């Protein structure tokens, strides 16, 4: 801590990060041990965070992330989109296909940024705001592959005709970006995805991940 920082705010943010990293919540005692502060301090932090709906406490007294975090999370999309645009533009122009950044939104995959190539005679029309189930389409399946293999790089995922007849897709997950679960991919009108597209998509996903770190 330095003279310019707030110890209380720092502790509150650390509480949120600790709760975000667990599926079953944490007790006051567990938070006290992890933060290295006494239980009274933790009670005060939780009470303040609870007032803003950033945490909630279940019947057993365990603290969990609250729904207020979702409202903050909605504001993340524009920031993520802005950071991803250079890599998406490069990908779209290089491959000659529509490039997209897709993030998890509940049980769906939600396209938050889309870039269409400028030099092709035709390409797939794909719009920001388009959503589909995570288990359909390359974008969602790439995200699920990263969930299933969290300690490894799953590479890229290819699909054909799952979201639109005659269209195929390639996507790679964003890896190593805390708090962001998504993928970068392309969709094109073709019978098969050209061999070089998969590795190029992986490269673009890494570029986006680097921009978000």
TrEMBL record:
Q: Where is the IclR-ED domain?
A: 68-213
> Is Transit peptide one of the keywords?
no
Q: Which residues form the HTH iclR-type domain?
A: 6-67
Query: Domain of life of the organism in this record?
Result: Bacteria
Q: Which InterPro entries match?
A: GAF-like_dom_sf, HTH_MetabolicPath_Reg, Tscrpt_reg_IclR_C, Tscrpt_reg_IclR_N, WH-like_DNA-bd_sf, WH_DNA-bd_sf
Q: Which Gene3D superfamilies match?
A: 3.30.450.40, Winged helix-like DNA-binding domain superfamily/Winged helix DNA-binding domain
The residue ranges crossing the membrane are: none
Question: Which terms are listed as keywords in the entry?
Answer: DNA-binding, Transcription, Transcription regulation
Entry's Gene Ontology molecular function annotations? DNA binding
- Name of this chain's protein: DNA-binding IclR family transcriptional regulator
Instruction: Name its species.
Output: Streptomyces africanus
């Amino acid at each position: 801590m330095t003279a310019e920082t707030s110890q209380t705010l720092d502790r509150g943010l650390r509480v949120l990060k600790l709760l975000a990293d667990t599926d079953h919540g944490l007790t006051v005692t567990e938070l006290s041990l992890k933060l290295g502060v006494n239980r009274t301090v933790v009670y005060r932090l939780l009470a303040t965070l609870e007032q803003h709906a950033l945490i909630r406490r279940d019947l057993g007294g365990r603290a969990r992330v609250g729904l207020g975090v979702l409202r903050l999370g909605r504001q993340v999309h524009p920031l993520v989109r802005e950071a991803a645009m250079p890599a998406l533009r490069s990908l779209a122009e290089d491959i000659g296909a529509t490039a997209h950044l897709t993030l998890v939104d509940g049980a769906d995959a939600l396209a938050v940024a889309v870039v269409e190539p400028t030099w092709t005679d035709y390409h797939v029309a794909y719009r920001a705001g388009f959503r589909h189930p995570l288990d359909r389409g390359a974008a969602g399946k790439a995200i699920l592959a990263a969930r299933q293999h969290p300690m490894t790089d799953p590479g890229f995922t290819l699909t054909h005709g799952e979201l639109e007849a005659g269209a195929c897709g390639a996507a790679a997950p964003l890896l190593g970006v805390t708090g962001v679960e998504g993928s970068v991919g392309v969709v094109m009108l073709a019978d098969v995805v050209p061999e070089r597209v998969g590795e190029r998509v992986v490269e673009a996903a890494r570029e986006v991940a680097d921009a978000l770190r």
